Amino acid sequence: MTDPILRSTVTSISSRPAARHRRWLLALALASATLTPALAQAANCTGAPEWNASVIYLAGTTLQKGGVLYRANIDIWNAPPDHPAGAPYYTNLGACDGSGTNQPPSVSLTSPSNGASFSAGSTITVSANASDSDGSVSKVEFFRGGTSLGVDTSAPYSVTWTNASAGSHTFKAVATDNNNAVTSSATVTVTVNAASNDTTAPSVPGGLNSPSKTASTVSLAWNAATDNSGGSGVAGYDVYRNGSLVGSPSATSYTDRGLAASTAYTYTVRARDNAGNASAQSASISVTTSTGGGNGGNKRVIGYFTQWGIYGRNYRVKNIDTSGSAAKMTHINYAFGNVRNNRCEVGVTVPSNESTGAGGDAFADYTKAFQAGESVSGAADTWDQPLRGNWNQLKQLKAKNPNLKVLISLGGWTWSRGFSSAAQPANRQAFVASCIDAYIRGNLPVTDGAGGTGAAAGVFDGIDIDWEYPVACGLACGTPADNANFTALLAEFRRQLDAVRPGLLLTVAVGAGIDKIRVTDPATYHQYLDYINVMTYDFHGAFDPITGHHSALFDSPNDPSTGDVKLYNSNDAMEAFLARGVPASKLNLGIGFYGRGWTNVPNVNNGLYQSGSAAPGTYEAGIEDWKVLKNLNHPIYTDANARATWSYNGTTFWSFDTPALITEKMGYVKTQGLGGAFFWEFSGDDAQGTLVNTVSNGLK
Fold first, then answer.
1. Which of 276, 367, 470, 580 could be a cystine partner for 165, CB 3.0 to 4.6 Å?
2. Catalytic status, residue 468
3. Structural domains present in the chain
């Protein structure tokens, strides 16, 4: 296999040809969450060179970085030994000053107490204290026996175990410090008592069936089990996929998510009572997921289509078809639906106001009549159609591409202001109901002769929540209560969507900055979602006083940013979600079909990390479509550490992804086992759909 990263110059500290020993950084992240290097010892660093990103370090070579001596375990380049992507591939040999062994962290369980008793069905909080005398604690992972209960990356460290089963259970906590030293706590044993001395298992659930399926989900349903007379009552069910436990719902239905397309899965289910007794497993069924849409293998290819793109940008749904992009897609998100006055506001035509959150365009959504030459079907809209506009065009596009799914995306930068109120307990249920009534049931206000009961039914296959941002600040700042309310809102959306019919999608678009991630609870909320679009772009732009990468794949030691901004890159964003227990298959990497730009940039360092002001753009200063940037013919540069590209002509600096870099990013998606990729947005691509084709082909 040819090296996917092209390098003009590589220096090796070995006499062997450098090309034979190149290693792709993207492959290195696979083991970062599971491998733990040996504890650091006192070290003599005399003669050991400083780590250099351009040097290929052969297995057995010693080097130093940050005053610590390391030994390379494999031939490796461009992977810093003190970064999660590279750390598993080096052995930490100790501090260069010879001060001695790195001190491992200390950790002890604070709850539950040893010998404590609980009733079956209880929720048990497992907590720990952890500290590190010569560094910091990076994470604490909790175990019940050999099963991980979850990871906490910040004090106070704790997880919860819900619906505890009867029996004796042992807990421990494992702390990891910033040098990857690991310490396990003493174990604590508790007893969970069976209720009412109940020793009889519930009946075996019958009637296991699959009402629906998609390329990535299987919906299951079964008949309720019964418990013995005088028993403790049925507590819930365990669902097994290919013999492994995948879910424990309390209801008689479950949707298994994040699956591969065109793949057969075998399912069984058993019942549990509140005393911890479990029935035998049911008869099994086999379900084969649907064929995946698009040509990106089994990965998702998701694109945003903007409501307003039909105007100045002159980009219509038909362009998705004529460019060949539709055949490459698995999902399209329609941007956006407004969240206002604790409702999904539909059917108004009002200019957008960032200060108030007002805005809507029913004309573009469902009343505009497209002529035959503008229509996906080739037929002109008629005056008496109940559904016209973009939504009817999307319905036509789905008819031509039966595996394509379309979601309504709610909020976005301008229309997220209303989420914080809508998600509050008093408003949540009614808000969700209004969204489902409009977008899923398709009941639209009548305007300009369009709309009415069920007018938009069949357009949208699910709902995407783009709240910018819970707790943190977008156009408006959130509140601490947003964290719990965000999770509860997703739970309510899932409940009501499943009540309409199984298989409806629920997704989110989330900020990629650690400051946005840490204030929410992905470990809890991901269970309600089919997937998560991580917006790994807009890390830097003309809103910053100096130039930088707007969509870097990795961090760079040369980046002058400080604090949380230092972690503004795609890999650190993904690591943050993975560390919080989100399955990799639920995460999608974001790609911008545009660039961020500065002008009046000094000709130093090819313009990178220099002062500047917003460069002129076609529609907005500081931003420009890729289809324009590709024709500038400015020199292109690549940051070997960050894996980011930019153009610079001595004055103007544009940060954007080239097709070559997008291909590299798709390699990262596959290597990390992510679910796929998404992009903002279609109109930034050229008429041939070059970037969409690059994303799709890169995921095969």
1. 276
2. yes
3. 11-95 (2.10.10), 106-193 (2.60.40.10), 202-288 (2.60.40.10), 300-477+492-504+539-570+591-698 (3.20.20.80)
Is the pLDDT confidence value at 107 over 90? yes
The mean pLDDT of 587-601, rounded to a whole number, is 97
Evaluated on CA atoms 463, 523, 419, 478, the torsion sign reads negative
Give yes or no for a contact between 164 and 123, defined as CB atoms under 8 angstroms apart: yes
Q: Which residues are CB-contacts of 298 (< 8 A; sequence separation ≥ 6)? A: 215, 260, 261, 262, 263, 292
Contacts of 668-672 spanning 24+ positions with Cβ under 8 A: 668/26, 668/29, 668/553, 668/570, 668/571, 668/589, 669/299, 669/589, 669/698, 669/699, 670/299, 670/699, 671/26, 671/27, 671/29, 671/30, 672/26, 672/29, 672/30, 672/574, 672/584
pTM over 0.70: no
The C-alpha atoms of residue 627 and residue 81 are separated, in whole angstroms, by 38
pLDDT tens digits, 351-364 = 999 888 999 999 99
Mean pLDDT estimate for the chain: 87
Residue 275 is given by DSSP the state T
> Does the pLDDT of residue 217 top 90, yes or no?
no
Residue 11 token pair: 């220096």
Structure tokens at 589: 């990497």
Contact assessment for residue 394 and residue 340, using Cβ atoms and an 8 Å cutoff: no
Distances (CA, A) of 141 to 137, 172, 177, 514: 11, 9, 12, 20
Cα(466)–Cα(464) distance, rounded to whole angstroms? 6
| φ/ψ bin of 454: left (φ > 0), alpha (ψ from -120 to 50), beta (otherwise) | left
For residues 310 and 222, give the distance between their C-alpha atoms in angstroms, rounded to a whole number. 46
User: Both ends of the chain: CA-CA distance in Å?
Assistant: 15
Contact 371, 364 (CB under 8 A): no
Cα–Cα distances in Å, from 513 out to 196, 542, 556?
Answer: 50, 17, 16
Closest CA to 261 of 220, 293, 290, 218: 290
What residue type is 644 in one-letter code? A
How many CA atoms lie within 13 Å of 306's alpha carbon, on the beta-carbon side?
Answer: 18
The pLDDT, as a whole number, for residue 75 is 67
Dihedral-angle region of residue 246 (phi above 0 means left; psi in -120 to 50 means alpha; beta otherwise): alpha
Lowest mean pLDDT among 7-11, 425-429, 481-485: 7-11
Percent of the chain residues topping a pLDDT of 90: 63
The dihedral formed by the CA atoms of 378, 380, 386 and 388, expressed in degrees to the nearest 10: 70
The 10 Å Cβ neighbour count of residue 429 is 13
Write the pLDDT tens digit of every residue in 31-61: 333 333 333 345 778 778 888 765 767 777 8
Q: Residue 333: which of 302, 364, 363 has the closest Cα?
A: 302
- Average pLDDT, integer, range 518-528: 92
- Which residue out of 141, 468, 492, 575 is catalytically annotated? 468
658-669, pLDDT tens digit by residue? 999 999 999 999
- Partners of residue 285 on adjacent β-strands: 267
